[in-house]
Protein 1
Amino acid sequence: MTNLPKRPQVILLGNGINRAFNGVSWNDLLNSIADEKYKDKQIECPMPLKAILVTGDNIDKTLKNHIEQNRQQAYGAIVQKEHAAMLQKILSIGADHILTTNYSYELEMAAKNVKSGLSDYAIEQMMAHTDAVYKAESKYLLSTYNQVQYEKTPNCIWHIHGESRKPSSIVLGHYNYGKLVHRYIETLNKLAKTENRYKNYEGQYKEWKFRSWVDAFILGDVYVLGYKLDLSEFDLWWLINRKKREKAEHGDIYFYEPAVENAENADSENIDARLELIRVFAKEVKDMSVTIPRKSKNDDQSASNIKYYEFYKKAINDIANKISEIKNKEKKTNV
């Protein structure tokens, strides 16, 4: 039997948990940085292109100015103790890597047990990088992460689309998404004459030597939580396709998303292409038997938030149990 390195356990965390506690949505962010003529307008457009449209193709400067003028919003905050407890539960699971598409620092705040106000200096003290780079990257943070500890559990937090302290690192527009995919390809092929880099490592090491979060994503079991995987997120869809094509032994994808109550008179024959595509690639798609109620313009958000809270509690427990089971098996194997 091939002596395979242990499989990394990876949580990919989106903005969903923050949204369940009235955090800022991506649409809120785009509306905040939009030119006046685009504010509060319904625009049907893929998100990376919408960012170009609403800023007049001036994303970098506009976003930097927005962060400078709205630091607390951009860095994030934890207002409710239930929000902190939920993030701390994730930090206590013992995942090998936590990837987040968020630019803000709620996870780091939860680890430090503070509600807001992390200084740039405090964030810098968390910063680490792999030996793939000689210093922390300023853009496209493939090998740079924040190292934090919650109680006795260490965590590597990777802001895969950039972070607020480094506005130049934030991946938002279509051009930057394309450049990011190019970086993925470079990273995956670096130090390898073929595409079988991981396959060639099998049997040589007890643990993988990670050069970037991309390594962890390709090789590991990935638990996607609070992240819709919109079809416009083409960089991650590319990686999901690449993961499935990997020749070396690699992990599975587990996707968590609650069911949503059908709108009135909805055509039951309609197919959610996004969710069907996720089912093509994921080992499990789990709604944790939670359905989000239909919301009209006159409804407040509280009913939906209660159901989302229920969903996230169940999903986090499910992820914790899966990771614990895998790590226990590994311990028995190594005895």
Protein 2
Amino acid sequence: MSGILGKKIGMTSLFDESGEAIPCTIIEAGPCYVTQVKTADRDGYDAVQLGFDEVKETRINKPLRGHLARAGVKALRLIREFRDFNGAELKPGAEVRVDVFQQGDVVDVTGRSKGRGFQGVVKRHHFGGVGMTTHGQSDRVRAPGSISASSYPSRVFKGTRMGGRMGHSRVTVKNLKVVKVISESNLLIVKGSVPGAINSYVEVVKQR
């Protein structure tokens, strides 16, 4: 298994050999830099820590600045770990590019979904609305209705679907096929959509 960090650029469509349009997402994948290599003997598990997106040193705190300096890399905004990484020969400071993927690979893409703010039950949980809009009822169409009973249990159970903050959660879309790899531009094109807004960060992991 291999992985890489990237940034969602947007969506487009490509045509296959039969002329069918394929909806695709363009990801700026890397270049990433190895900031630490963890081993089972020293750290309790095997993992490769990658950094992505160069920034000014003043944009990161001192502990992270020192951590990256020990690895011999520049200031990086995003740091993530990948377990079972096919790169035992990698050392701190090594560069990981998009060419770790090939056309036809199947990948899982993880990102943070778009935040929707506070939403009611109709939009958040697809409730159908309550009752009629006649007989004087004018403002209860999108209300949740009864959320519990009075005499028993005299409380609202945990997990009851109600209005609340929607989106901005970690989402993984699995089994996306790599349609094209453009190494010179660090671009990875995958079939289908991936979570997050444009310019949001994503993690791309190759399936075994």
Protein 3
Amino acid sequence: MLEKIRIFSGNSNLVLASEICRNLGVSMGKANVTTFSDGETQVEINENVRGMDVFIIQSTCSPVNVMLMELLIMIDAMKRASADRITAVIPYYGYARQDRKVAPRAPISAKLVADLITTAGAHRVLSMDLHAGQIQGFFNIPVDNLFATSVLLEYMKKNYMNDTVVVSPDTGGVERARAFGKRLGAALAIIDKRREGPNESQVMNIIGNVKDKKVIILDDMIDTAGTVVHAASALKDAGALEVCVCCTHPVLSGPALDRIEKSSIKELVVTDTIPLTDAAKKCKRIKVLSVAGLLSEAVRRIYYNDSVHSLFI
């Protein structure tokens, strides 16, 4: 049934790519993605893709520039090998936070990356929980932006159903938190914060009642964990019984793990859009949920030209 599908992966998330292949009942495409001695990326496609529907699974996570180049070169290789359609499956879209000019002479790197992917030869993009919805408009090709909400909700309903408040860590995430709380049957609260600089934040105020409640902080990604750790501390001071943090993309760079270990966060629930480091895997507070089922269903529907609308809900 899937005779013309070919699924390939760079080196960013081979475990997730393998799980997607397993769900679809197809084999991983044969490709060598390595580097020359000077650091240049080398790609060799070792099977015929002429006329095939090719899906390249690659999160542009750390090391971001290396993974991005792997993706671009793989797309170019598929285009030159006469693939019929090339879909870039990017569970985590790097550079997404640079989606607008925040200062004079600043770049809009998210747009630049979109142009690079399009110019390389991708026909469509499948991503998950883009940091800003307008990034879809940076592309001149179709973009499907899935949400990990269904995966996260299933776990939350089993573990955090009674006397629960969903908290947005900033005003920009209120819509996401409100929709999540509505489906969970939970109240809503908002952290009013003021950012002093990149990867730095200061909690200013809590809007909503969290006293004697179980609290779920919902965000799209956690990088250095400064925001959620400060937020968790403020929520505990405001009377929250326990604090759980939920996010799609566990970037967890710099001092993130140390901050989480020393924080009042009971549990950090993440997905596998980004593979955890060995140190993160040892952290008992981190719970990883897989989005392989969601992505594999989206791949199947794209291959058959079926609607993916129901996957956005």
